[in-house]
């Protein structure tokens, strides 16, 4: 019994030691949460990595976990001890860790001031998961290695995209059930609820509409809410901490046919004074690429609340509508 206790205690101490923060060169701090025991990353390896980037205030600046788009890149030669490329050599495939790159050290070696968003910070912090490392085989030509890596990641991306595409109907169903929306569906797959039909005359391709709108993602955040990715409502933007200084708020002019297909279709379902809720599937929205910069994931439906304030008649459209974003970023 005592021997078993000793072994358990030793294993516990070993696990704790693995998770202790360690110091590296150049003011680097790092904690290895899990080590898979694989060969460490070397210069020239091709790495697939998920990460969360934070500042000293623990604010998330970016996350590939949220955007569902892991970073794929070649491991480069380090510029100085403790830089981003140096720290990667501490990890191997399957490892997870948190590391803090010293910004003062970075500024000293780059001869550049700290980036504006980090001017009051000492570190830039990354929590990473090394998903895959493709290594060059002994004696393998560079061209052969690069082709092999390219083929692997192309196949990996295709498999990932197909998985996300297959999951979209479940995402849409979950959103409708959670919001308790009893929607109707158009032939194209657009889900909608007309709250006010507005005037009898509806906008047509070539017209311009003056609208109020709010767009949300259909995946709940950690706060249990559906995050706004764009809105014309300044009060709502401030209330939900999504206010963007310099952005024009209030009713916006928008050409009918100059937006993503689902948005264009939604505008033509109501008249002046009309209000509508729509859930736009990805094939009528941002497709397999999504718009990660505003939180729209690949193969993800999005939701809009729209109100048409006015319709400005124009010349009938003679060409197919473009598929730009509802509001440029």
Automatic annotation (TrEMBL):
All residue ranges annotated as the PPIase FKBP-type domain in the record: 206-312
Catalytic activity: [protein]-peptidylproline (omega=180) = [protein]-peptidylproline (omega=0)
Membrane-spanning segments: none
GO molecular function: peptidyl-prolyl cis-trans isomerase activity
InterPro entries assigned: PPIase_dom_sf, PPIase_FKBP_dom
Catalytic activity, EC: 5.2.1.8
Family in the record: Belongs to the FKBP-type PPIase family.
Protein name: peptidylprolyl isomerase
Native organism taxonomy: Bacteria, Pseudomonadati, Bacteroidota, Sphingobacteriia, Sphingobacteriales
